[in-house]
Specification:
alpha/beta; Four Helix Bundle (Hemerythrin (Met), subunit A); Elongation Factor Tu (Ef-tu), domain 3; Rossmann fold; 3 domains; 6-stranded antiparallel β-sheet; globular; binds flavin-adenine dinucleotide; FAD-bd_8
């Protein structure tokens, strides 16, 4: 039966909010001296805030197993929202407790640092938010010339310093360190998360696979097609529609890993095809990268195919693709050619439509229905061409500009689609 709801995402939220702080609260509440009773609630706020921060840091390590379950974009959203909620709780903690000396100083420094970084990150690092709030997006766009993404990443990492300050803050409170089960748990989990974070930043990069650039051609105005050959020993497991993180370690300005979707089916030739639009410093330099350059690859990430695999194999697939957002869907279509599919593909200009020859071939098939046009589809055009009884037998894969994806998401839900019937991955987090 068609899955109309996405339970995994809801369960993930519940675990993050309730289950993660629970052992800490349990062990702490068993040992807090009664003379601090008036501060108990504020103390609990502080510990919940800290555990949420630790969880947010863990999510920033991009755990692959969680990506396949809930998706990295959703994980980044939880990462952002939990951090904001943690700062609110940290404020309640600060205003509901009394402290002096270094206990107060470390707590205040941590709070001020968190707050400043949160404001900065809400503009520059929270694609899930800026894509929904046009004013924030405008501010981000105008300031991004100075605050480049790489700089923002480094500024964002100062959150670790703030977490370390909180760690010290707790170690200085003698009645808390006296509660042995709590402090052992607190120290062990803090060390574990810090270890995982350091591993992901310093050790994991050493494990990135090294491929080789075997083709680099311009396929449309400002769109580069890169083909990368993976090493024979490659352990990378790719599904259709996945994205990989990619960088050129020998080319200046191209050494930081950036995410790009694969446009081909994960095939036995160990080749990855990427279609990349020149949007900024990194992507505009790609046309000049010489053949046979070494490429670092980490992946695969993404849930387009995992989402399809979760559904019965006889459901219809509707593809809504716009602009460069078609990339993961090209791969998904190519890997699911036997399924009943209705494709809507649009771009701003005729020259921006990619791989039209492939679409021509696909449309020859009886089970594939495609409409390709320049300029956006209107609502009726899509609604009138959906499969019969689509609310009961159809899933939707969307790829395109954020505003387009949210439009179709809202529109389809308004007309009866369930949450679990629609899947899309944003191109910015
Ligand atoms: C899951 C996913 C899949 C993507 N697939 C494609 C694709 O197939 N084709 C394509 O052309 N583009 C794709 N993108 C977008 C691509 O990653 C960005 O356009 C590129 O990283 C921009 O880098 P830049 O330095 O050229 O531009 P900048 O001007 O630095 O950045 C432009 C915007 O891209 C985002 N961005 C920049 N660097 C990163 C980074 N390291 N990680 C995450 N976001 C970043 C930021 O939101 C920024 O506002 C994808 C993005 C995501 C998240």
């Amino acid at each position: 039966m068609l899955k109309r709801h996405r339970y995994s995402y809801g369960i993930f939220w519940l675990i993050a909010i309730f289950l993660v702080p629970l052992p800490f609260l349990q062990t702490l509440s068993n040992g807090l001296p009664i003379i601090y009773q008036s501060e108990f609630r504020a103390i609990y706020y502080g510990i919940i805030a800290y555990t949420w921060m630790l969880f947010a840091i863990y999510l920033s390590t991009k755990p692959k197993w969680l990506d396949r379950l809930v998706g990295l974009p959703e994980m980044y959203m939880v990462h952002g929202m939990l951090s904001i909620a943690a700062i609110v709780l940290a404020y309640l903690h600060k205003s509901g407790t009394v402290s002096t000396g270094w206990i107060k100083t470390t707590g205040d420094w941590a709070f001020d640092l968190f707050l400043g970084l949160m404001i900065y990150s809400l503009i520059f690092m929270a694609g899930w938010l800026t894509n929904r709030v046009p004013l924030l997006k405008k501010i981000k766009r105008s300031l991004e010339k100075f605050f480049k993404h790489e700089l923002s990443i480094w500024i964002h990492r100062l959150n670790i310093v703030a977490v370390v300050l909180v760690f010290i803050h707790v170690q200085l409170i003698s009645y808390v360190t006296a509660i042995k089960p709590f402090i052992y748990l607190f120290d062990a989990v803090s060390a574990l998360v810090l270890g995982l974070y350091l591993f992901s930043k310093f050790v994991k990069p050493l494990t990135y696979e090294q491929g080789m650039l075997i083709s680099n051609r311009t396929v449309a105005d400002n769109v580069q097609e890169l083909t990368i050959r993976l090493p024979r020993s490659s352990h990378i497991k790719l599904l259709a529609g996945d994205y990989v993180f990619m960088a050129f370690p020998d080319s200046s300005g191209l050494k930081e890993m950036h995410p790009f979707s694969i446009a081909n089916t994960p095939d036995e030739n160990r080749e990855i095809v990427l279609l990349i639009r020149g949007d900024g410093d990194f992507t505009r330099k790609l046309a000049d990268v010489p053949l046979e350059s070494r490429v670092n690859i980490d992946g695969g990430y993404g849930r387009y195919q995992a989402f399809l695999n979760d559904q019965p194999s006889d459901v219809n697939i509707v593809i809504l693709a716009g602009g460069i957002g078609v990339t993961p869907l090209l791969s998904t279509i190519a890997d699911n050619l036997n399924r009943n599919m209705t494709i809507f593909y649009t771009a701003h200009r005729q020259d921006d439509l990619l791989y039209l020859d492939k679409f021509d071939q696909w449309q020859q098939r009886d089970n594939i229905n495609g409409t390709i046009q320049v300029g956006r589809f209107n609502d009726d055009q899509v609604l009138n061409n959906l499969p019969k009884d689509w609310t009961k037998n159809t899933v939707f894969l969307i790829g395109g500009p954020s505003s387009m994806m949210h439009h179709w998401n809202r529109f389809l839900k308004k007309h009866g689609a369930g949450n679990g019937q629609i899947y899309f991955e944003e191109f910015s987090w």
